[in-house]
Amino acid sequence: MNLLVERKLLKPLENSALVQQVRDTTSELVMSAMNFLGVPYRRGGNSEEAGFDCSGFTRHIFEMSIGLVLPRRADEQASSGLLQKITREELKPGDLVFFNTMRRTFSHVGIYIGDDKFIHSPRAGGEVRIENMRESYWSRRFTGARRADMSAVAATVVATPTTSR
Q1: Which end of the chain is more exposed for a tag (fewer CB within 10 A), N or C?
Q2: Whether residue 54 lies in the annotated active site
Q3: Which residue in 120, 128, 143, 154 is the catalytic one?
């Protein structure tokens, strides 16, 4: 967590048990995503062994790291009631970022990691990697962002302990 704050990927928050838990789950989500760098793209893929497509990757990371099961497709994730709409200026690590890469809005999704960068599974022949949203390709295609209510997720995790994720 301190490493992310030092690199200015996360801002320091006030100290409280819930804030610390929210911070830990967000950090876990981003660090989980980083563990999959280099995993190959596979259309319809949703596991490290089979490979990932973009929405399979985000779905896997959210379920594995914070226990939130997202819909399967990028456009369904964008319209999910589990996530709240946010602006680009409000982005924080762990938020979902959406792009128009197939001539339709919300056709691609990744996970924001901070400093205008996101991690995603890009396309056939590619692999999970980090991209800069300031690059013209991504900047022109950005269509929105969504955030999971991490305090609600953290409260759910506290209320229903699990043995393993």
Answers
A1: C
A2: yes
A3: 120
